[in-house]
Amino acid sequence: MDNRIIYLDHAATTPVKPEVLEEMLPYFTNKFGNASSIYSIGRESKKAIEEARERVAKALGAMPREIFFTGSGSEADNWAIKGVAYANKAKGNHIITTAIEHHAVLHTCQYLESDGFEVTYLPVDENGLVSPEQVRKAIKPSTTLITIMFANNEIGTIQPIAEIGKIAKEHNIYFHTDAVQAVGNIPINVNELNVDLLSLSAHKFYGPKGVGALYIRKGVKITNFLHGGAQERGRRASTENVAGIVGLGKAIELATNNIEQYNKKLIELRDRTIEEITKKVPFVKLNGDRYKRLPGNVNFSFQFIEGESLLLMLDMKGIAASSGSACTSGSLDPSHVLLAIGLDHETAHGSLRITFGEENTHEDVDYLMEVLPAIVQRLREMSPLYEKVKRGN
Ligand SMILES: *Cc1c(COP(=O)(O)O)cnc(C)c1O
């Protein structure tokens, strides 16, 4: 990476670790065989895929045959939700989710609504938490699926997944969680949590882009996702992305083996940044739960300024951050997550997300805190609203 850039956007994507790349490389060149072929370089690819499947299963406390590789986290979300909805249509047409899901979940649910399904979008509290009691109350005889994200990509809030899993199990309803932000940051065991389906994506934990996985508990009724060859036990046809899958396997193993040390470091950077911004910049609000939050996530609203201008000025100083989710930047609609936790449009527009990762250090925080308060001040000097507040009317 260009070392003049301080990258503070790990929730958007992460760089591939050198050890991960090294394991992937042979599968682009001399080990290029099709995993469905029976000669030796084909069998080698097949073996590499199955090893990666074992690594993913181990990281989640699942069985290898319950892991299915996909083309992304978004694909895993689409498959889980549409797959369960359609396969269980005879039983019911109701799905429960939340207002703060990633668009891969929200837009899939909206699509299903256009096809005759009924979806309940549960509200969240001011910290972005879903109440398990509300989940219980939303259940109807026609409910077939609960889909609630593990941790939010914008504000970092971690949901009470075990409690929700317990409720789903008591009611015999399938429970899917989008764990794309959680894997590598939070230890996960699908059996302890009573999760039936779980989505993950390699590029969020130092693996390659364009490869993900869906955990499907044995026995879950779900439609096949892609029709064609017999890959992924006939459920998701396509010649496998062998190198990508190998990279995902290596990355998840590294991430889960090192989770405690990694978290300790990120929490230090996070907490220091939260403290210093709160102390040095007036008129700010921390978004998301102060403690039930991803180790590397900082999300603040700065009153009287535009998040986009803040990002551009940080970029000029060599800092890459985000003003919400990467998928919505470029659009003028404020983040649906920030609106759901009760921010008004203006406050939601003035938000900044900083997500720390592997390469970040305390020097990065020093530099951020050297430039950020001055930028905020400069932008506020241009705001007529701020002038009014300063004058006290
Ligand atoms: C990044 C992300 C996704 C999408 O994963 P892709 O592999 O980029 O398609 C889904 N959900 C959450 C919470 C994410 O952060």
From TrEMBL:
Pfam family, one: Aminotran_5
Residue positions, PTM N6-(pyridoxal phosphate)lysine: 204
CC per GO annotation: L-cysteine desulfurase complex
Needed co-factor(s): pyridoxal 5'-phosphate
Family, as annotated: Belongs to the class-V pyridoxal-phosphate-dependent aminotransferase family. NifS/IscS subfamily.
Subunit structure as annotated in this protein's UniProt entry: Homodimer. Forms a heterotetramer with IscU, interacts with other sulfur acceptors.
Task of the protein: Master enzyme that delivers sulfur to a number of partners involved in Fe-S cluster assembly, tRNA modification or cofactor biosynthesis. Catalyzes the removal of elemental sulfur atoms from cysteine to produce alanine. Functions as a sulfur delivery protein for Fe-S cluster synthesis onto IscU, an Fe-S scaffold assembly protein, as well as other S acceptor proteins.
Protein name: Cysteine desulfurase IscS
Native species: Acetivibrio clariflavus (strain DSM 19732 / NBRC 101661 / EBR45)
UniProt gene name: iscS
